[in-house]
Specification:
Shape: elongated
Mean pLDDT: 79
Strand content: 5-15%
Order of helices and strands: HHHHHHHHHHHEEEHEEHEHHHEHEEEHH
Number of domains: 2
CATH architecture of the largest domain: Up-down Bundle
CATH superfamily of the largest domain: ABC transporter type 1, transmembrane domain
Structural class: alpha/beta
Radius of gyration: 35 Å
Distance between the termini: 39 Å
Low-confidence stretches: 1-27, 604-612
CATH topology of the largest domain: ABC transporter transmembrane region fold
Helix content: 55-70%
């Protein structure tokens, strides 16, 4: 086995220490989540120097572009005056302005490659941090593929909006304003008329763009649904093939894509109508502007260079307002997608630490449910005045028919659900007053369906204690009976596949037990830990569980009553209440629900043996 042990990675302990120094309640605040643009500016303010430099670079570049057009006017006037004028000086000025114009764009792009990307990184980290703070109910109602897709889509949309603002919105704004200022030197009246027309045109475009927002939101929602559908089918491909549903899923996905395409077409067509309206309007305005300049030239109130300048400024205004309109309406789609994603991701957390929540120091493992009542949303009450005390080191089994509330008891103890009334205490302290981090450290869980990360065997075991040394991991694996690791292709470095698909059910269960050994929590929860295993795997897992339970408070939900034979107590539950509470040997000799469960299970085993 030693030859298969991976070498320790340098710096891992330091990294774990740094991560653990972050308080579990230090979550990002999303006060502007309902306003996507303000939400974006909040992240831009985290990198003020970079964004300011990009702004200054764009401002300088556009200023040079406008000044170069004035330099063209100056060059034309010098040429018109004859060959003795300062032609080469005028030419040099124009050449320098053109060079600086291009150079400043490159500086802005270089700085933006750092600052804009940093914004997307901050955003994804904060969204993931917020997402992981949600309870199981949130994830039960939302496909994981859709949530993952929304984080990525939000990041991409934010980058697009920010880039569009820097390269497509800000430059034409500056260019139009600068052109109007330059035109004011020729004709203040002409400049004033342009200001009024440009203001009216922009206000109209903004109003029209806002009117199309429902179309853009509909497209964003359909796009997210397609992403979620795709991931959902891929994650369940084995079921699709087992039921011969490949063609059916193709048809379903095709229908989803068709719906998304129609929504996108409606959104794009609306944007195109705005562009057509803007193109016709600005073309007419530019023609009128140029005719006005020619009239001024014809009466001697403008030079040839002035006519050239008005012409170039007119085209600058035409292209600037056109580019601005296109950028604004395009950005509307991306802003809508950001808003739709944020409305889904940034739902307030249901379960948060109470104000002044305390850490649970060195828990001993005493557990008490005191008059607990709980009901799932939209359903009747499941637990009714549920009360039970479990001493440290005591092993208690929960049995009963499906829906009796057994798994709910485990969920409430872990505080993945909140009680409607009553209290749950560990060592006499209400878990509602404890930090969620310290509560989770006091409890280890071995579930029925073990979920593993698509990482190595070593990383999956170490998940129970991130700062554990390699030798601790090997000891935990040995205690859990994970001798199969030696036969894996790369030993502890073997990747287990998506959700542990490369391992058998028994192997996954023993890795979960090794993880619990490593965590070494005083309270152990077992939720049908052996119900889905074959006889041989069950024996191996039962032996590992027996070693794991020593010295710990154990609460086990079990379908096979034989697995609870050596427990201290068994609670028989029905409709959220405890009907019986006694040691197994007492319940076996006492008429009641437990003996009935034993009788039915014995009949089932006999029938199964006869059928075999």
């Amino acid at each position: 086995m030693a030859s298969l042990r991976p070498r320790p990675k340098p710096g891992r302990q330091a990294l774990i220490g740094e991560l653990r120094s972050v308080h579990s309640n230090d979550r990002p605040q999303f006060e502007n989540a309902s306003h996507p643009v303000r939400f974006l500016f909040r992240y831009m303010r985290r990198h003020p120097v970079g964004h300011s430099l990009v702004f200054m670079a764009v401002l300088s570049a556009v200023g040079c572009a406008i000044a170069s057009q004035y330099a063209v006017k100056h060059l034309v006037d010098v040429l018109a005056a004859g060959p003795k004028g300062p032609v080469w000086t005028a030419f040099g000025l124009l050449a320098v302005l053109v060079a600086v114009d291009n150079f400043m764009w490159r500086i802005g792009g270089w700085i933006a490659s750092h600052s804009f990307v940093a914004v997307t990184g901050d955003l994804r980290r904060d969204l993931f941090q917020h997402l992981t703070g949600h309870g199981p109910a949130y994830f039960a109602d939302r496909p994981p593929g859709t949530l993952a897709g929304r984080i990525t889509a939000t990041s991409n949309a934010v980058y697009t909006v920010e880039s569009s603002f820097a390269w497509s919105v800000l430059p034409p704004c500056i260019a139009v304003l600068g052109s109007i200022v330059v035109l004011a030197t020729i004709s203040p009246l002409m400049a004033s008329v342009l200001v009024v027309i440009a203001a009216v045109l922009m206000l109209l475009l903004v109003r029209l763009a806002a009117a199309g927002r429902p179309l853009h939101h509909a497209y964003a929602a359909d796009a997210a649904a397609v992403d979620g559908e795709l991931v959902d089918v891929i994650n369940n491909m084995s079921i699709v093939r087992a039921f011969g549903a490949t063609f059916r899923e193709r048809e379903r996905f095709s229908s989803r894509v068709q719906q998304e395409m129609e929504a996108r077409r409606r959104s794009l067509r609306y944007l195109e109508k705005l562009r057509i309206f803007h193109a016709v309007t600005t073309a007419m305005l530019t023609a009128g502007l140029l005719a006005w300049a020619i009239l001024l030239w014809s009466v001697g109130r403008a030079s040839t260079g002035d006519v050239v300048l008005v012409s170039t400024m007119g085209f600058t205004i035409l292209h600037g307002t056109r580019d601005l309109a296109v950028a604004l309406v395009d950005s509307t789609q991306h802003v809508a997608r950001v808003g739709e994603a944020l409305s889904t991701l940034l739902v307030p957390h249901e379960l948060t630490d109470a104000e002044g929540a305390e850490h649970l120091p060195q828990p001993k493992g005493a557990v008490e449910f005191r008059n607990v009542r709980f009901a799932y949303p939209g359903a009747g009450s499941l637990l009714h005045e549920f009360s039970v005390r479990i001493a440290p080191g005591e092993r208690v089994g929960l049995v009963g028919r499906s829906g009796a509330g057994k798994s709910t008891v485990l969920a409430l103890l872990q505080r993945t659900r909140s009680v409607q009334s009553g209290q749950i205490l560990i060592d006499g302290r209400n878990i509602a007053d404890l930090t969620q981090q310290s509560l989770s450290e006091a409890i280890s869980v071995v579930p029925q369906e073990v979920m593993l990360f698509q990482r190595s065997v070593l990383e999956n075991i170490r998940y129970g204690k991130p700062d554990a040394a390699d030798e601790e991991v090997y000891s935990a694996a040995a205690a859990a009976g994970c001798n199969f690791i030696e036969a894996l292709p790369q030993g502890y470095d073997t990747m287990v596949g998506d959700r542990g698909i490369k391992l058998s059910g028994g192997q996954r269960q023993r890795l979960a037990i090794a993880r619990a050994f490593l965590r070494n929590s005083p309270i152990l929860l077992l939720d049908e830990a052996t119900s889905a295993l074959d006889s041989e795997s069950e024996r191996a897992v039962q032996e590992a569980l027996a070693r794991l339970m020593v010295g710990r408070t154990v609460i086990a939900v079990a379908h096979r009553l034989s697995t609870l034979r050596d427990f201290d107590r068994i609670l028989v539950m029905q409709n959220g209440r405890i009907l019986q509470d006694a040691p197994p040997h007492v319940l076996e000799s006492t008429p009641g629900p437990y003996r009935e469960l034993l009788r039915r299970q014995a009949i089932h085993l006999v029938e199964h043996a006869e059928a075999a």
